[in-house]
From TrEMBL:
Lineage: Bacteria, Bacillati, Actinomycetota, Actinomycetes, Kitasatosporales
Keyword Membrane: yes
This protein's record includes keyword Ribonucleoprotein: no
Compartments where located: Cell membrane
Keywords: Cell membrane, Membrane, Transmembrane, Transmembrane helix, Transport
One family name in Pfam for this protein: MFS_1
PANTHER family: MAJOR FACILITATOR SUPERFAMILY MFS_1, RESISTANCE PROTEIN MDTM, PUTATIVE-RELATED-RELATED
Residues passing through the membrane, by range: 12-29, 49-69, 81-100, 106-127, 148-170, 176-194, 222-246, 258-276, 288-307, 313-339, 346-371, 377-396
Species, as recorded: Streptomyces lienomycini
Domain Major facilitator superfamily (MFS) profile as annotated: residue spans: 14-399
Protein name: MFS transporter
Signal peptide: none
Membrane-protein topology: Multi-pass membrane protein
Amino acid sequence: MTTRHRPESRRHGIGFSLIAFAFLTAMAFSTVPTPLYPLYMARDGFSTFMVTVVFATYAVGVVISLLLAGHISDWTGRKKVLLPAIALELAAALLFITTTSLPGLLVARFITGLGVGMITATATAHLHELHSAHRPGASPHRFELVSTAANIGGLGVGPLVAGILAQWVAVPLRTPYIVFAVLLVLGLVAVALTPETVEEQFAKPTYRPQRISIDHGDRSRYLAAAAGAFASFAVFGLFTSVAPGFVAGTLHQPSRALAGLIVFAAFGGAAVAQSVTARLSTDTKRRLGLSSQAAGVVILVVGMYTANLAAFLIGGVIAGIGAGVLFKAALGTVAAAAVPAKRGEALAGLFLIAYLGLTLPAVGIGVATLSASATTVMTWFASLLLALLATVAVLARRRPAAH
């Protein structure tokens, strides 16, 4: 792969904004079903376990896509991956619009996962290169802020928009998808208008699935970043899978708009924290992320034990802040350390590990609810997450101090 060094700066600046819009829209669409799950549960008698099966289907799609296609934009070009990825999400939106059956829901979520797995690392790498071409030699803070805000912020925007639409418009299980289908079409146009930053190679390397490699810059730094990403996405997985059901059931708050607002607050806290901590060192961001995430999860569990919505919301926001800051530190570390020829691969590996964190704890929660109460299960989740955060802290402390 070769990166173009002297493109038209203004076109790359506009392209940076266009890719950020497409990235945010794609990630927002991926969480549109989050506040709608209780509606599916009420209509079809879904259990919390079935919700996590649907969520796991999406996550399996993400992981498969990351393994098979998350890294190929390094030699095919960013747009040749982003365009079909967003097209997959559009196909999923059309499926959501035309059917509300469980099989249709499972297929649509799987297709959504395939699209997201192709988008995350590719869009992040594209933003990094557009930023570098538009502002050569500039600080990477703008790239880090926009890429993580599009990713994490998008995950919060989806439930907020879907929850509001589901609360106050007709046909709540279809209208949100119609709105996002239109936005995804605009996302396709945005990508098509953006300059390519990778020159396609005529002699392409031998294809192989994505491998999880720590050989990207300093190995210990990559390993610490990956562990932090897993921990961060464990919290995000909680809020995008079973949290709305907990709010409706355990806290007796069935409002779809409220469910969307709670998820948005958690992810919004993450996005805001990423902005205000932009100039902190990686070590400081990591420590802030670990401590905030730990404190937030404890408060969230207290809110469930006391059936206190305010405590649950505050705990969610604080946990979201911690997860957002910790993930931003991980993303910035990997993007900066990887060489251009392997940046897509390095980011795909990071997102693969992160999405395992998104998937495994959420599925574990769903399975555990078959034999224990939601409050008990959340206590187990919090205990395991606190142990994981402590492990991340120890692991980060062991890495070399000078880089």
